[in-house]
Amino acid sequence: MSFSAAQWRGHFPLLAAHPKLHYLDNAATGQLCEAALDAVTSHELQHRANVLRGTYRLAEQADAAYENARRQVAAYLNAAGPEEVVFTAGTTAAINLLAHAFGEGLDAGDEVVLSLAEHHSNFVPWQMLRERRGVALRFLPLAADGRLDLSRLDEFVSQRCKLVAVTHASNVTGAVTDLAPLVAAARAVGARVLVDGAQAVQHGQVDVAALGVDFYAFSGHKAFAPTGVGVLWGRSEALAALPPFLGGGGMIGRVTAGETTWAPPPRRFEAGTPPIAQAVGLGAALDWLRAQPWADMHAHTARLAQRLMDGLAVLPGLTFLGPRDLRQRLPIVSFTLAGIHPHDACQILDGHGVAVRGGHHCAQPLMDCFGVAGAVRASLVPYNDEADVGALLAGLKDAMRKLG
Ligand code: PMP
Fold first, then answer.
1. Domains recognised in the chain with CATH numbers
2. Which of 171, 176, 330 has the most ligand 1 atoms within 8 A of CB, as the residue to mutate?
3. From start to end of 229-301, where are the E strands?
4. CA 171, CA 252: separation in Å to the nearest integer?
5. Which one of 39, 109, 199, 369 is least enclosed by Cβ atoms within 10 Å?
6. Residues 387, 393: Cα–Cα separation, whole Å
7. In 132-209, which ranges are E strands?
8. 6/8 Cα distance (integer angstroms)
9. First to last CA, the chain
10. What is the pLDDT of residues 344-380, one digit of tens each?
11. In this structure, which residue's CA is closest to atom 4 in ligand 1?
């Protein structure tokens, strides 16, 4: 299958309806693909019922659709099986689930290793765990370009370490984490590894088996699927060792007035009615993504990111954040403009039909490392094209003229 950005764009109804929009905020949310939209619509029209407890045909069809979505997610992640896929409300919910379920087994003196590049959703839940259980947090430092500095790993991942929780790729710099040494260090001390995959999933299939990690969290909406659904993938034996977080319907074995036993994973972690149609949409989006020509699409987004970075490099007063080598990063491009607040730049850009995000991007510790309060971020996916990059560069020149 050959790739064309214009053709790809045609699979995204919102973009087709807004031909003049230069949507470059994909790191915040990818647009919904028609495969997901069609799957949600047909599910809601034909199979809408609650899952798990129904004995009539419609409910059995809803059950089948929901469990099929689990299989589709497992295939995208190269998981050992669908029972390793826990549906959540998103990455944030998945990490909070783990911070509670895994955190239950930790005590004062135990350590969780994070990095300073984390999104707040892989930062704050662990700080809250520190308050609850007295565990210590260790923060992997960053190199000047925002990549994790893994040169002193053995100082950070000690015998006290029970979990290493790091991002697969930064939502600010796009820097891709070199997970292999982290996994090896964690294995050497018997610690688990959680990866925040929120940014990685929209750039192609993830292979959790090859990564060798224990837990992987992501959100549907970044993978061109509906909002309100996400995934905590966990290796079977790692999930089986955890107690539930939320209690309620669907997660039980047997309830009596005296006590409750738990269902096996993944149900143990899915109390209450799950986001059924959203999960069906997510499964359809991932199946569709799996069939795309990713090598061509990566070449396309890398070319665009390079063109953007070359265009930015000649703008006066512009400071680029992150590694320059596109082999070490996703096509997420963040920068500051001397004397111009990111929000003001974004507003001028909006006048040019360019949607980008400005601010701290929920990564204030990373901003602190760079010594800035915020940045403008443009994030590219395969439906973006030269016109999007051109409009952004033209809009920035205008912003500099007006605000600089
Ligand atoms: N981690 C990273 C790296 C992210 O980019 C995001 C979303 N910006 C999240 C976690 C949180 O995702 P959600 O808001 O969908 O839970």
1. 5-31+293-403 (3.90.1150.10), 37-290 (3.40.640.10)
2. 171
3. 230-234, 252-255, 260-262
4. 36
5. 109
6. 10
7. 136-140, 161-167, 192-196
8. 5
9. 46
10. 999 999 999 999 999 999 999 999 999 999 999 999 9
11. 198
